[in-house]
TrEMBL record, chain A:
Keyword Membrane: yes
Name assigned to this protein: Anti-sigma factor
Gene Ontology CC annotations of this record: plasma membrane
Claim: Protein biosynthesis is one of the keywords in the record: no
Automatic annotation (TrEMBL), chain B:
InterPro entries: RNA_pol_sigma-70-like, RNA_pol_sigma-70_dom, RNA_pol_sigma70_ECF_CS, RNA_pol_sigma70_r2, RNA_pol_sigma70_r4_t2, RNA_pol_sigma_r2, RNA_pol_sigma_r3/r4-like, WH-like_DNA-bd_sf
Organism taxonomic ancestry: Bacteria, Bacillati, Actinomycetota, Actinomycetes, Propionibacteriales
Secretion signal, residue range per the UniProt entry: none
GO terms under biological process: DNA-templated transcription initiation; response to stress
One Pfam short name: Sigma70_r2
SUPFAM superfamilies from the UniProt entry: Sigma2 domain of RNA polymerase sigma factors, Sigma3 and sigma4 domains of RNA polymerase sigma factors
CDD domains found in the cross-reference section: Sigma70_r4
Protein name per UniProt: RNA polymerase sigma factor
Domain RNA polymerase sigma factor 70 region 4 type: from-to ranges: 144-195
PROSITE patterns listed in its UniProt record: SIGMA70_ECF
Domain of life: Bacteria
Keyword DNA-binding included in the entry's annotation: yes
Length: 240, 209
């Protein structure tokens, strides 16, 4: 009976961690099955080099399905949350104000030449290094461009969100980070994002638990209006 | 260990985005079984679990949002009506839905070809290559891999996303997640093997390829 190469070794070769040598390399030359396995792994890696971002269908697709099947649409929640109407959200300005306090802290640090990312990190003064709980990609909404990631961090002081963006247009105004509730009715501003660097924002306690899981980056005009411009650029959803 | 446990819990929760109140989200296997039995809630669960996969597949293959929405609708409607043909013991619902999606995409591409022939002047088209009417396998593989990645438990999911989406090196990932280098390498290797296995499961018995 022929002994074949184990998957772990084949994975190392496919990833280029090691090069085939010795008897294992000889086996690879003569064994179609192992050569085939290696080729499959390389194929997966090739494909993985250019992965698409998954996109959810708009909410009306679900209602079209339930209409066509004459089912009760309330049995499911829409998978894509439209932007809530901030103008009708009670206490929006209060929430907004809290957001502003964080922005101010970050802005002070930025003035000191530390950059928004470093500045915002100053909010956390614990010695303990925050741990990463989740990383979600932020992808461009239709007709917009840019990508990014949102890292949910757990620090001794509570949860933080680290936002990194790239490819955001250098447009007039500024970019702002929002947390939108999956109920589609409420949102909270975390503060201003410097699109050329990362920003770390302290999250109010229980924010994620309450359903504020959609990370939304908007482009805001310099018009003094504290509400969401409704011009969302990139978005992603944190795990529940 | 604590970090991994915490992260793993976050990853599990992600498998199907919206949890039911008490019992946590149903697993793909539970959804598959309930779907085969025709339980009304299972269609919504299936939609939550696989609609992004199906929509993204259709969008990438067809390049048109309205067509991708139509295909997504058709896939769920025909899957629900034809649920008697689905056997949960022979594979997961996700793979079955993917198969239906491929057929619907192929139908749509064929219809486009017909439209093209009908609307263009025939003479103009004579001798030219016919419109592409097959679903590009690489496109499908890429969407399937992206979807499988999303379903991995953490920290493996985060590690592979950093590697594949952000081209991070092993040391960069290790530093960013505060994990030993060896742990990162081992997750990448096992993740790669897992992705290969899942891809074979979904595409292996698909006769349309």
């Amino acid at each position: 009976m022929t002994t074949h190469l184990d998957d772990d070794l084949l994975a190392r070769w496919a990833l280029g961690d090691e090069a085939p040598d010795g008897p294992a390399a000889d086996h690879l030359q003569s064994c179609q099955r192992c050569a085939g396995s290696l080729a499959e792994l390389r194929q997966v890696l090739d494909a993985a080099g250019d992965l698409p971002r998954l996109e959810s269908p708009p909410a009306e697709v679900w209602s079209r399905i339930t209409d066509e099947l004459s089912l009760d649409p309330d049995r499911a929640e829409p998978t894509v949350i439209p932007l809530p109407d901030a103008r009708r959200t009670p206490n929006a300005s209060v929430r907004r104000f809290r957001g502003r306090a964080l922005v101010a802290a970050a802005a002070v640090a930025a003035v000191l030449g530390a950059g928004v990312g470093v500045g915002a990190t100053l909010i956390v003064q614990d010695d303990e290094k925050p741990t990463v709980q989740a990383v979600v990609p932020l992808s461009a909404l239709e007709g917009r461009s840019g990508t990014g990631t949102a890292d949910l961090l757990k620090a001794a002081s509570g949860e933080q969100l680290k936002v990194t963006a790239s490819g955001l247009a250098a447009a007039a105004g500024y970019y702002e980070v929002w947390m939108i509730n999956t109920d589609g009715k409420r949102m909270v501003s975390l503060g201003v994002l410097d699109p050329s660097s990362a920003g770390t924002f302290q999250l109010p306690a229980q924010l994620i638990a309450q359903g504020y899981r959609i990370v939304d980056i908007s482009l805001e005009p310099d018009d003094g209006n504290p509400e969401h411009s409704r011009n969302s650029i990139i978005r992603g959803t944190l795990p529940a | 260990m604590t970090v991994e446990l915490l992260a793993a819990r976050a990853g599990l929760a992600r498998v199907c985005a919206v949890a039911s109140a008490e019992a946590g989200p149903p697993s793909p296997a539970e959804i598959s079984k309930a779907f085969a039995e025709g339980r009304p809630d299972s269609l919504a669960d299936a939609y939550r679990c696989w609609s992004s996969l199906i929509f993204t597949l259709a969008l990438r293959a067809l390049g048109n949002r309205a067509d991708a929405e139509d295909v997504t609708q058709q896939v769920f409607v025909s899957a629900w009506r034809g649920r008697a043909n689905f056997d949960p013991d022979s594979g997961q619902l996700g793979a079955w839905l993917t198969g239906i999606t491929r057929h619907r995409i192929a139908d749509r591409l064929a219809a486009r070809g017909r439209d093209l022939r009908n609307t263009e002047v025939a003479a103009q088209l004579a001798g030219e290559r016919p419109a592409v009417q097959v679903v590009d396998d690489l496109t499908v593989d890429r969407v399937l891999i992206a979807d499988e990645l999303d379903r991995l438990g953490d920290p493996r999911r985060t590690i592979l996303k950093l590697a594949f989406y952000e081209d991070c090196t092993y040391p960069q990932i290790a530093e960013r997640l505060d994990l030993p280098l060896g742990t990162v390498k081992s997750h990448v290797r096992r993740g790669l093997l897992h992705l290969r296995d899942r891809l074979k499961e979904v595409t292996g018995d698909d006769t349309s390829r």
